[in-house]
Specification:
The complex is a heterodimer of chains A (145) and B (222). Chain A has seven helices and three strands; from the N terminus they run αββααααβαα. Chain A is mostly helical and 145 residues long. Chain B is built from eight helices and three strands. The chains are: A mainly alpha (145), B mainly alpha (222).
């Protein structure tokens, strides 16, 4: 009887150690820049990678007012329903990304560079960190590359 | 007598068997759980828990940041954040750049107008002091730093009514992304223990006493 219990305890300990080792291989959360926005309203469904908007890059060049007051971007990730048609019409991103102020829309992959399947979210936002983490982490097998 | 001991030994045996069966089934469960743990599509650990390890890496290049797809060729032609942050004052949170200080020191010259590089912002230098009920320092809201970046219509009147005592603000609303939380905690400096004092910056008066709770005031046995 007692030897059986011992064996059981040993077995569960080994399983515990294995589970711990497995947990070490669990992917870490994304380490993107604070305030990077992934916009995936329509991209995935259309077979494109989601668009990634780097706030830090644009903040160095423009104040918040330019996009959020003049161009009418709402303060909400995914809340603007941006489509390529609107951009080509010169609305939203297209106000600058028109080949005059910045590079034009033919550079698809510069914006559409997110990991497929990543939902629309603000990277590193308090709501994401504390309440509902949304990003889809890389698979454990991918991190070994 | 004999009958009683028999019954006791039988019940002991049953309990032992139940214990063993229980232990074995638990071990089997753990074994089942151990295998898919490697590939589980879970979110990362909650960084709010101070007992969990904090990420050591900061400002990673786009191809390694976990959001950009490294298999996308254009990802590798995107600028690395650290390259852009060279020479900017640092901070301990967010992008680890003190954006307001960078603007004040003239290290950044972001445009106020989309096309006109010489347009200047309409800056209003007015501090609003908001007394806080709790014992934490009172809040000072500086209009200057905000109007350097934003226009009046960004906040007024949709987010904040431009009127004294007309705005109910609480930390829970902010943490959920309302009021100050529309920007703070998303794009402007995050809400962390390191940033409390950026807003809660005016010490309480020396004779300040915490207000008595309603339960105390209405206590009939006082």
């Amino acid at each position: 009887m007692s030897s059986k219990i011992k064996r059981n305890v040993l077995k569960s300990m080994i399983i515990g150690v294995l589970a711990y080792m497995g947990a070490l291989g669990v992917p870490q959360p994304a380490q993107a820049e604070y305030a990077d926005v992934v916009i995936n309203n329509y991209a995935d469904a259309a077979g494109m990678r989601p668009a990634v908007f780097p706030h830090w890059f644009h903040r160095i060049r423009f104040r918040c007012k330019v996009c959020h007051a003049d161009l009418g971007f709402a303060f909400k990730a995914g809340g603007n329903k941006i489509t390529m048609a609107k951009i080509i019409d010169g609305k939203f991103c297209g106000a600058c990304h028109n080949g005059e102020i910045s590079w034009s829309v033919e550079n698809c992959a510069m914006c559409h560079s997110g990991n497929p399947g990543t939902p629309t979210h603000f990277h590193g936002s308090t709501v994401q960190r504390l309440i509902a983490p949304a990003y889809k982490p890389l698979k454990a097998t991918d991190t070994k590359k | 007598m004999n009958h009683k001991t028999k019954a006791i030994s039988f019940s002991c045996a049953v309990m032992m068997a139940a214990f063993l069966w229980n232990a074995q089934s638990h071990a089997a469960e753990a074994g089942e759980n151990a295998a898919p743990l490697m590939l589980a599509e879970v979110s990362g650990p909650n960084t709010f828990n101070l007992n969990l390890k904090k990420p050591k890496a900061r400002n990673l290049p786009p191809a390694e940041d976990g959001i950009h797809d490294p298999e996308n060729e254009a990802t590798h032609s995107l600028q690395h954040p650290l390259e852009a942050y060279k020479g900017l004052p640092t901070s301990e949170f967010g992008n680890y750049v003190d954006w307001v200080k960078a603007l004040d020191e003239g290290k950044l010259r972001p445009r106020w107008d989309r096309a006109d590089p010489n347009d200047e912002p309409f800056v209003m230098d007015l501090d609003i002091v908001r007394p806080v009920k709790a014992s934490v320092p009172d809040v000072v809201f500086p209009h200057r730093q905000h109007t350097e970046w934003l226009y009046c219509s960004n906040c007024h009147p949709a987010i904040f009514k431009p009127q004294r005592l007309a705005n109910q603000i609480s930390m829970s609303a902010i943490l959920l992304g309302q009021k100050c939380g529309v920007c703070h905690g998303k794009v402007s400096f995050p809400i962390e223990t390191k940033t409390c004092r950026k807003c809660h910056s005016k010490p309480k008066p020396a004779d300040w006493q915490p207000p008595l709770s309603e339960a105390t005031l209405k206590n009939p046995w006082k």
